[in-house]
Amino acid sequence: MARTRSSEAHEKVIRAALDLFGERGIDGASMDAIARSSGVSKATIYHHWADKEALLMEVMVFVNGLDRKPENVDTGDLCGDLAAVLSRRPPNDLDAERRRITPTLIAYSAVHPEFGRAWRQRVTEPPRAALRSVLQRGIEHGRLPHDLDMDTALALLLGPMLYVHIFSKDDPHHRPDLGPSVAEAFCRAFAVQPAAAHQKSRGR
Question: Do 45 and 11 form a contact (C-beta atoms < 8 A)?
Fold first, then answer.
């Protein structure tokens, strides 16, 4: 399907804003500068975004791949589904842009708490929601204890992923994918043994 002029202009603005926010900081990148860099009129920009912070939010969504609908994970394999969610990563083609703009976003969110809350909600809540769905399904199917503490479970699953993200200085392409091993360790600790296997182990 051919792209419309409107969609092309939209992407030009997002790309120009991403570059300028990374180079000049958010306060230093004016809407006039974004208009000049993108070749899109300021009137058109304001037609799509109410203000610079609204544009910034969409840039943040774009660079983290949050505008791409995640695949539904429901294979019937609890451990595999957890690993699939934990192994999800933002788009590789935007790694350089994401590394450049993330410190700017962190600094901006520190002095603009409302934006910071919105940013955390958009970035951290989708994987939490996906994991919660897998865990809830595991409880319903008898693969996890009915009294599983959901907050503790999420912290145990996401903690190692955040550790690698924060402390690894390697190129993102070469960071270890802890998803499968974290999911396996969680399942060994919390998964309810299937009835057949349980009876077999008792008969030994």
Answer: no
Sign of the C-alpha dihedral computed for residues 92, 114, 9 and 13 taken in this order: negative
Within 10 angstroms of residue 168's Cβ, the number of other Cβ atoms is 12
Tell me the mean pLDDT in the region 29-45: 95
35 residue type, one letter: A
pLDDT at residue number 17: 95
- pTM listed for this prediction: 0.69
Q: What are phi and psi of 44, to 5 degrees?
A: -65, -40
DSSP state of 72: P
The answer to whether 38 touches 15, Cβ cutoff 8 Å, is: yes
Q: Is residue 64 very low, low, confident or very high in pLDDT (cuts 50, 70, 90)?
A: confident
CA distance 107 to 13: 22
CA dihedral (89, 94, 96, 102) positive or negative: negative
The residues near 135 (Cβ < 8 Å, ≥ 6 apart) are 82, 144, 148, 150, 153, 154
Domains of the chain: 5-63 (1.10.10.60), 78-203 (1.10.357.10)
